[in-house]
Design brief:
Largest sheet: 5 strands, mixed
Helix content: 25-40%
Strand content: 15-25%
Strand order of the largest sheet: 10-12-11-13-14
Shape: globular
Radius of gyration: 19 Å
């Protein structure tokens, strides 16, 4: 990644408002709360209106998508700027700044180009405790690859016809960059299908799903036979509906009869687990909550293997 961005490009990126960014990159995260007021499923105290946004629960706000990525998503300036340039590459800022209702957006998934090798992704995931067999399985299935531009790990979700419909990028370097690919549909999130069985295991992230597969492998269980589904982030209970990824999975896999929850061991994770269990039971599904012993499944795996806390879990000041 280049260390500088031309001032002219930065000026253009600052013209991209948050509503346009969310409509383009995260339409499933966008919620209309008024005639011209929007919020997000991820942060229900967020308000977006008249070209500005405010995250009331944290007392911060701004007027651009760049502000949002830096202040809310905790991205370094260069990472956020390059992400926006990547998403809107080849399109004039004036064109993308025309605000259209979310339902009118044409969702065309924009996956980054694939790198010829996957060395950086493999090295990164191994540091997170993931077994080489699990990594190779995902690469061979096409659900994981290394991007050619920034060498991010890209997790891909497919629809029932095998067409890519969802992409998630995670940095393999020192930054904490994470983002959905433009045009992603969260209902087709990353998953590892066992091909049969009546149970599906639910996780907040793809790395947690890979971590659980590794734990099964270490305990000499057939990890390939299990159905593992990422919910693509924190689920915020709303209107008595299941997470979009789970709802779609149940439609595509009508034989599923039970859910096993492995959501994070924190307040949002526990609230989400309770909400999903309540809704699922009303729909006649069995539900078991297997809360991680530590923060999440990946942390359980790393500590089980004696690797210490994964980078994302280390306290501030001790390296990321």
């Amino acid at each position: 990644m280049a260390e500088i961005i031309e001032p002219k490009v930065v000026a253009e990126l600052k013209q991209i408002d948050l509503l346009t960014y969310l409509q383009t990159c995260e339409p499933d995260n966008l919620v209309r709360v008024g005639s011209n007021i929007f919020s997000t499923k991820e942060h229900d105290s967020m308000r977006i209106s008249n070209g500005k946004w405010c995250w009331w629960s944290h007392g911060i706000g701004g007027s651009t998508a760049l502000d949002y990525l830096i202040k809310v998503r905790d991205m370094p300036f260069l990472t956020a700027a390059h992400h926006l340039a990547d998403v809107f590459h080849g399109r004039s800022v004036s064109a993308v700044s025309v605000r259209q209702p979310a339902h009118e957006q044409v969702r065309k998934l924009q996956l980054p180009p694939k790198n010829a090798t996957h060395g950086r992704v493999e090295a990164y995931l191994k540091k997170r405790g993931i077994a080489p067999e699990v990594i190779d399985h995902c690469i061979q299935s096409g659900s994981l690859y290394e991007s050619a531009d920034y060498h991010n790990a890209v997790f891909v979700g497919f629809d029932r016809s095998g067409v890519p419909r969802y992409g998630f990028k995670r940095s393999t370097g020192a930054t904490r960059f994470v983002a959905d690919c433009a045009g992603s549909s969260k209902q087709y999130a990353f998953c590892m299908d066992g091909g049969s069985g009546e149970d599906v295991h639910l996780f907040e992230s793809a790395i947690d799903a890979l971590s659980f597969a590794t734990l099964l492998l270490l305990h000499r269980r057939d990890w390939r036979a299990e159905n593992l589904l990422s919910l693509s982030g924190i689920y915020t209970p709303k209107d008595g509906k299941l997470p979009a990824a789970l709802a779609q999975y149940l439609v595509d896999h009508p034989g599923i009869r039970s859910l096993t929850l492995h959501l994070d061991n924190d307040a949002p994770g526990r609230i989400a687990a309770q909400a999903i269990a309540t809704i699922a039971k009303k729909q006649g599904l069995r539900c078991e909550d297997c809360c991680p012993k530590h923060k999440d499944v990946n942390e359980d795996l790393c500590l089980f293997r004696g690797l210490g806390l994964p980078p994302k879990s280390r306290p501030p000041g001790r390296g990321r």
